[in-house]
Amino acid sequence: MLPAFRRAPGAPPFLIAGPCVIESEALCLSIAERLQDIGTGLGMPVIFKASFDKANRTSVGGFRGHGMEEGLRVLEKVRRETGLPVLTDVHLPDQITAVAQVVDMLQTPAFLARQTDLIMAAAASGRPVNIKKAQFMAPPDMAAVLGKARAAADGAGIADPQIMLCERGSSFGYNNLVVDMRGLVIMREMGAPVVFDATHSVQLPGGGGDRSLGQRQFVEPLACAAMAVGIDGLFMETHPDPDSALSDGPNMVSLDGLAELLRKIVAIATLG
User: Fold this and answer.
1) Which residue of 35, 42, 118, 175 sits 20 to 30 Å from the alpha carbon of 2, by its own alpha carbon?
2) Predicted pLDDT at 263
């Protein structure tokens, strides 16, 4: 069951977490089971996240996944066996009908925040949507994106669309991102729940030449700061061995250290 997306004062945020990409069924199930245990222990609602296709890899040799059909099969199994709601990315409008039949929530990638057809099709699907702010967009620019999504939902007869806005850092020179915490306040004032993507915010896009690098040591301080500023949900990619992950390993957090990090988040959340 999906959580209430607007966080009540003193309540923990909901958590969107999982591996960057679906590497295997076994890995997804093992991570989902750990996340379920962690969420239960902390009273934190968990949505399992994994991508069936990473269509925006830096180089042609980057691992993209096993395709939509296999990916949706794995996500459906995770959902059935763990009871966790599941989320995945969509990159094209014509993917949405099939994907929305399997997952509980859709996500649009940051690079595609200006793709009107994708944003509107996702919002019209009837599924909740997490819209990532593009690295090249200012926080106030997301008002227009939110307007597109709400218009599409209204046109589809959806009375109370669940549309979230997600901060994941802004381009800062070459191969670097910076998080302006003011953006969380600005986007929350638009009337949409706000999610902070703590792991992609420490990415160094293209920093490795044919791949992106990352600074995972900054995930915790940024996540704590975002929680203090005020967010509704937290996004974190996690893996039992980030250094061997097939995608985004340098900015992912270790599954073994996730519970302790989230305890700090929950403690901050209880302050207000």
Assistant:
1) 118
2) 98
Sequence-ordered list of residues with C-beta below 8 angstroms from that of 28, at least 6 positions apart, any chain: 18, 19, 22, 48, 50, 74, 75, 78
What would the two tokens of residue 224 be? 């704590």
Distances in Å between the Cα of 220 and the Cα atoms of 94, 116, 172, 251 are 37, 33, 20, 11
pLDDT, tens only, 44-89: 999 999 999 988 888 888 899 999 999 999 999 999 999 999 999 9
Task: Extract the residue ranges of the chain whose pLDDT is less than 50.
Answer: none
CB-based contacts of 120, cutoff 8 Å, min separation 6: 148, 149, 151, 152
* Run of H or E residues at 17: strand 14-18
pLDDT at 1: 82
User: Hey, what are 49's tokens?
Assistant: 């996240």
- As a whole number of angstroms, the distance between CA 197 and CA 236 comes to 6
pTM of the full structure: 0.97
**CATH numbers and ranges of domains, the chain:** 14-270 (3.20.20.70)
**CB–CB of 48/35 below 8 Å?**
yes
- CA 25 vs CA 65, 86, 270: distances in Å: 12, 14, 35
Whole-angstrom distance, CA of residue 48 vs CA of residue 3: 12
